[in-house]
Write a structure and sequence with these properties.
Chain A: This is Anaerobic sulfite reductase subunit A. Chain A: It comes from Candidatus Epulonipiscium fishelsonii. The complex is a heterodimer of chains A (338) and B (257). Chain A contains twelve helices and twelve strands. With 338 residues, chain A is of the alpha+beta class. Chain A folds into two domains: 2-186, no CATH class; 208-336, no CATH class. The model of chain A has no long low-confidence stretch (mean pLDDT 94). The chains are: A alpha+beta (338), B alpha+beta (257). Chain A binds chain B through residues 31-37, 40, 42, 60, 68-70, 226-228, 231, 240, 242, 244-245, 247, 258-261, 264-266, and chain B through 47, 51, 53-56, 98, 100, 106-114, 130-132, 145, 148-155, 157-158, 160, 162.
Chain lengths: 338, 257
């Protein structure tokens, strides 16, 4: 069963959660774009349903709300360390079906990959998820090919229809609040897309033998190693550590972890000044094969969820889906050479 | 052009449609546009197309046109979207260069180094990394926006407010061609407009009464009266925003023959 909320009842629902939850959703930052007089849609805390952007894709994913771009994990003095305070307030995140699949990838890496990641777990435990249905596929999306166009593992689903919000609920706490608002119940089926204009084909015989194929060479020149594809990706989880010594007292400081990108210079730097994957094409190969080959070997499903944000943001118009679609022919080359 | 002089009224009537379409101020309808001293306000393509531009150059140029046209005093005004100055604003009496005041959210910074690298290589090296993060040198920064354009996480974003640099009294010509010098940094649109209008009053007061064709480059007038007298007139009634830097004294050089 589901609920149809008008704007007033939807905002009543939201305000009843505000004390207990930080609410994150894709929001339009007017004139907040990289280029002057352009807007951008990215994640932010919101106070009203009006602020949530339903009809466009966010430039960055929900990831930053649960896995902070920069997180101070502890402070140190000369002989002591103190873990940074953790805010136990609950979090409610609005995201898309593909993103919720992305969450599973984050969980796999941070919770089901050896010891649990303490800092991720702290944040993750307090989060509930609202899936925003997609009425139509957005540009560059290929979720259907990746099997990530639908995800029922949500706490709430929401679709905007004219001025109303269609909601289904799987969470007892939210169910109770909705029931208290005296909203009539009705049958609602959350929306999801069943086809995208972009389709990808990952060959069954894909293997790391493709690493030396020439398909990667074009990215040596095209890619500028800015890392945007990683930073917008809902499934990239790499981070780096920084020890900061405060400038007024160099014996005191903090350790923080920050997002890292396998496309950006320095990612593979080692003691002695060595680094792997100096060429951009090698970095592209590493990323693509992690997303559509190697993650699956360990966790049973591809890392990439087909949200297409990497294609949306690439300043050099490199298409990740195109790079996937080159794999089949390249594999034919690889196998015929044997 | 081969247009007989007696046909001019017909030509003037025929071009009325163009004047209407461009929304150019006019003294008399269907009489053409008789002023030539104040040149067409020129502008680069601006932020409608160019990713570097910090504002809509056409929109601001039109605003200036409406304020100063028609006028026969020799004024050259040029707008360019960013300090690249593709429009050659520095070769005009008034050069308006777009600026943005970069906003930094340290918690979004991943220390990729793109801003520092690009500021160093393409701009004025106003950024230096301290504790893995860029620190902006306010005195050096020219507001070009390279840090913003190159930031992959939007740790750098544009200021809501638009800023401009006003450069003064550049010129081409036979006597002493020279580049315009910085006058105001981080100034706003309204102040620039007032300064231009004030300058018309200044020129009317001090122009050489025997100037050939009634036109004289403003720069030569300022050379005569001294910059301080010009500044007094130009800033009359202008309330500059608190963040505006006024450059003084200003000296021009250029080519002397």
């Amino acid at each position: 069963m589901g609920f149809i909320l008008n704007k007033i009842s939807a905002d009543n629902f939201l305000s009843s959660l505000k004390d207990e939850y930080y609410i994150f959703a894709p929001k339009c930052f007017e004139f907040g774009g990289t280029y002057s007089d352009t807007d951008t849609i990215r994640y932010s805390q919101i106070n009203s349903f009006d602020e949530i952007v339903f009809d466009k894709k966010s430039l960055y994913s929900f990831k930053e709300a649960i896995f902070h771009i920069s997180q101070t994990i502890f402070y140190f003095t000369e002989d002591q360390a103190k873990e940074s305070n953790f805010n136990p307030k609950k979090v409610l995140i609005f995201l898309r079906n593909c993103d919720l699949h992305g969450l599973k990838r984050l969980d796999d890496i941070y919770l089901h990959n050896g010891p649990e990641d303490h800092y991720y777990k702290n944040l993750r435990e307090n989060v509930k998820f609202v899936v925003m249905g997609c009425e139509n596929s957005f540009e560059n999306c290929f979720c259907v090919s990746m099997g990530t166009n639908k995800n029922d593992d949500y706490d709430l689903s929401i679709d905007k229809q004219d001025d109303n919000y269609l909601i289904t609920c799987k969470d007892n706490e939210f169910n109770k609040i909705l029931a208290d608002l005296n909203i009539s119940q009705t049958e609602i089926i959350p929306k999801f897309v069943t086809s995208n204009s972009v389709k990808v084909n990952i060959p069954d015989n894909l293997s790391n033998d493709i690493a030396n194929n020439s398909i990667w060479n074009e990215y040596d020149i095209r890619c500028i190693a800015c890392g945007r594809c990683n930073f917008v990706c809902p499934t990239c989880t790499c981070f780096s550590m920084q020890d900061i010594f405060y400038t007024d007292n160099g014996k005191v400081g903090e350790r923080r972890r920050i997002w890292a990108s396998c496309m950006v210079d320095g990612f593979t730097d080692m003691a002695g000044g060595h680094s792997y994957r100096v060429k951009k094409g090698q970095r592209m190969r590493y990323k693509v094969l992690h997303k559509v080959l190697n993650h699956k070997k360990r966790y049973g499903e591809h890392m990439c969820v087909g949200c297409g944000r990497c294609d949306d943001i690439c300043p050099e118009y490199i298409s990740f889906s195109n790079s996937i679609n080159k794999l089949e022919n390249a594999m034919k080359e690889v196998t015929s050479n044997e | 052009m081969g247009i007989p002089f007696e046909k001019m009224p017909e030509v003037n009537a025929a071009i009325q449609e163009i004047i209407d379409g461009l929304e150019i101020n006019q003294e008399a309808f269907a009489q053409g546009y008789p002023s030539s001293g104040t040149r067409n306000i020129s502008a680069c393509i601006g932020n409608k197309v160019c990713p570097y531009a910090c504002y809509n150059t056409t929109k601001f140029a039109k605003r200036i046109e409406h304020a100063v046209f028609p006028n026969d005093l020799h004024f050259k005004i040029c707008l360019t979207g960013c300090p690249n100055d593709c429009a050659k604003a520095r070769m005009n009496d008034f050069g308006i260069i777009g600026m943005t005041l970069p906003q930094f959210e340290p918690e979004r910074c991943v220390s990729c180094g793109a801003c520092v690298r690009m500021c160093t290589r393409k701009s004025v090296q106003a950024l230096n990394p301290i504790n893995f993060r860029p620190v902006r040198n306010k005195e050096k920064c020219i507001g070009c926006g390279e840090c913003i354009i190159n930031c992959p996480t939007m740790a750098w974003t544009r200021s809501k407010k638009k800023y401009y640099k006003l450069v003064l009294l550049g010129r081409t010509g036979k006597k002493n061609p020279r580049l315009g010098e910085d006058f105001l940094k981080w100034v706003d649109e309204d102040s620039i407009l007032k300064i231009i209008l004030n300058t018309y009053n200044y020129v009317k007061q001090y122009i050489d009464v025997n100037a050939v064709g009634g036109k004289e480059h403003i720069g030569y007038i300022v050379d005569r009266t001294g910059f301080e007298e010009f500044k007094k007139w130009a800033l009359k009634g202008v309330e500059l925003p608190p963040e505006t830097e006024v450059c003084q004294p200003i000296y021009w050089s250029g080519i002397h023959f």
